[in-house]
Amino acid sequence: MTAPTLDLTAVAPIGFVAIGALVVLLAEVVLSRRKTLLGRPVTDVWIGAVLAMIASGFLALALYASAHAFWADTSAVFQLERPMLRLDRLAAFVTALVAVASLLVCVLSVTYLAEVRINHGEYYALLLLATSGMMLLAGSTDLITLFLGLELMSIPIYVLAGFDRRRLRSNESALKYFLVGSFASAILLYGMALLYGTTGHTDFDGIRAAFPAGNPLALTGFGLLLVGFAFKISSVPFHQWTPDVYEGAPISVTTYMAVTVKVAAFGALLRTLTVAFGPFAGELTGLLWVLAALTMLVGNVMAVIQDNLKRLLAYSSIAHAGYVLVGLVAGTPEGHAAVLFYLLVYVFMNLGAFAALVALANRGRDCERIDDLAGLARSRPALAGLLTLFLLALAGMPGTGGFIAKFMVFKAAVGAGYVGLAILGVLTSVVSVYYYLRIPVAMYMSEPGEAALREESSSGERLVLAVCAVVVLLLGIFPGAGPGLLAHVRALEWARQSVALLY
After folding, report:
1. What DSSP designation does 2 have?
2. Contact between residue 250 and residue 163 where contact means Cβ atoms under 8 Å apart
3. 277 near 208, Cβ under 8 Å?
4. How far apart are CA 43 and CA 61, in angstroms?
5. With contact defined as beta carbons under 8 Å apart, do 180 and 241 qualify?
6. E strand spans, 124-198
7. Contact 252, 232 (CB under 8 A)
8. What angle do CA 236, 239, 240 make, to 5 degrees?
9. What is the distance between the alpha carbons of residues 98 and 263, in angstroms, rounded to a whole number?
10. What one-character-per-residue DSSP string does 188-202 give?
């Protein structure tokens, strides 16, 4: 019996992040036993900062490995005899995006965890484990690794959602997410079982070759697989858990969930639809159309009536999932490239909006209501300006990356003949302007309230806000190559190159 041929470069990003999780756990044990180090007292805040640096370092290594794979334009397969995991340009793009978002969340969490008094080292270990699951999900070319990636991503996030054990809402958030997530996993697994039963394969290429287009069991399995993904991306009508979980979880965890889970799930869904079901995906285009339309409509309408900032941004994230689905409905290379570009912009504009709220957490209390932001422009004008920028980007205002992202998906939909869906997307975007602008109105036109908000941001928070603001503006002005050094930043071209291998 010959030994399998393994290529470790295919699992390099996952390996770095998984090893980082183990190092974080060991480092916490070692550091917590010391009273002093280099003549300085070892406090919980200091330990948290060190663990965040360790986690960020391993995420940076994963980012480097992903970027190297993208630029090398190679397709590394972990096991040649059974290619269940692949690191190609699509996987590298999604993996790098997840790594960047996770790294920024680590930097953002240092001061926040100390403010709300939940500065425990296992936070960073859980975050890294969930990130490794997302990376596994992004490179999966088999139903088995796809399910493993989903579970490795989900289980640590169930724990993170309830990380503030003293708060009932945080515990309730974790329980709801666990129950709904388990239900979604069961549906997904049942769909996979039907697909295996009707095709005899679990690998995407095998399913594509053996898929019986007229078989009702095969179509049912395909539909259940899509429903399982719809739970993960918070698509209507499988979105009910999202506002409650986002509201109850600590806001740094909400930030992490809002950006990384969607990126990984949409990346995996894009590969699954095109590689495993490419010739047959058109049979469920009508279902995707309905999901996209309902998600845009319900997400935006429900956001209008929210006063809680977390719930408002939760419904906002649901609406944005609908916009991304528009690109999948188009089903063209242009539409799929628009999906990846939208995810890139979404990470930075949404993470920036949440980062502004993280920077306001004070004395164990999150900034949760719109009224809490009253008069913020007077006390912290820079932060109010940055938050306004991110909200305008989320609304799709010209000059920001959000406008280019929405324009790309709507253009792809029109080009594919889905004019009505594009018009609905534009109309719901107009609705979103109302609830996004409610926040700047409170910050600039209302008298300061009684909410005790933090008066200064940490250096890490300022760094994250600056990075997000620069990217949002840069992609809004130069989505392609820009002048000078910006000629190397070609986000649209990267997105097109990532999906080119799918055809």
Report:
1. P
2. yes
3. yes
4. 28
5. yes
6. none
7. no
8. 125
9. 7
10. HHHHHHHHHHHHS--
Distance CA 157, CA 127 (A): 8
Say what the alpha-carbon torsion angle 332, 338, 339, 343 is, to the nearest 10 degrees. 170
- Per the CB < 8 A criterion, the answer to whether 141 and 83 are in contact is yes
**What type of residue is 376?**
L
Task: Return left, alpha or beta for 248; rule: phi > 0 is left, psi -120 to 50 is alpha, else beta.
Answer: alpha
Longest CA–CA span in the chain (Å) reads 76
Q: Which DSSP symbol is given to 38?
A: T
Query: In DSSP terms, which residues pair with 37 in a beta bridge?
Result: 40
Q: What is the DSSP letter of 8?
A: G
Preceding omega of 13 cis (within 30 degrees of 0): no
Question: Which tokens is 433 given?
Answer: 């302007």
Which residue in the block uniquely carries the two structure tokens 């997840």?
98
Rounded-to-10 torsion of CA 351, 356, 362, 365: -50
Cis preceding-peptide flag for 237 (omega within 30 of 0): yes
* Cα distance between residue 404 and residue 399, in whole Å: 8
Element of type H or E holding 35: none
Assigned token pair, 292:
């996209």
Q: How many CB atoms lie within 10 A of CB 74?
A: 15
Q: How many Å is the Cα radius of gyration of the chain?
A: 22
What residue type is assigned to position 63 of the chain? L
Joined together, the tokens standing for residue 431 give 């609705």
DSSP summary character for residue 332: S
- What letter would DSSP give residue 417? T
With CA atoms as reference, report the closest residue to 273 among 502, 4, 29: 502
Q: Compute the Cα dihedral for 293, 296, 299, 302 and give only its sign.
A: negative
pLDDT tens string, the chain, 503 residues long: the values are 566 677 678 788 999 999 999 999 998 888 877 776 666 676 777 788 888 899 999 999 999 999 988 888 777 777 776 788 888 889 999 999 999 999 999 999 888 888 877 877 788 999 999 999 999 999 888 899 999 999 999 999 999 988 888 777 888 888 888 888 888 889 999 999 999 998 888 888 888 888 887 788 888 888 889 888 898 888 888 888 888 888 888 888 999 999 999 999 999 999 998 888 876 766 677 888 999 999 999 999 999 988 888 899 999 999 999 999 999 998 888 999 999 999 999 999 999 999 988 888 777 677 778 888 888 888 888 888 999 999 999 998 988 999 999 999 999 999 988 999 999 999 999 999 999 999 999 888 877 766 667 677 788 889 999 999 999 998 888 877 666 666 667 888 888 888 887 77
DSSP annotation of 365 reads B
Residues 6+ away with beta carbon under 8 Å from 261:
134, 153, 157, 232, 233
Distance CA 443, CA 215 (A): 57
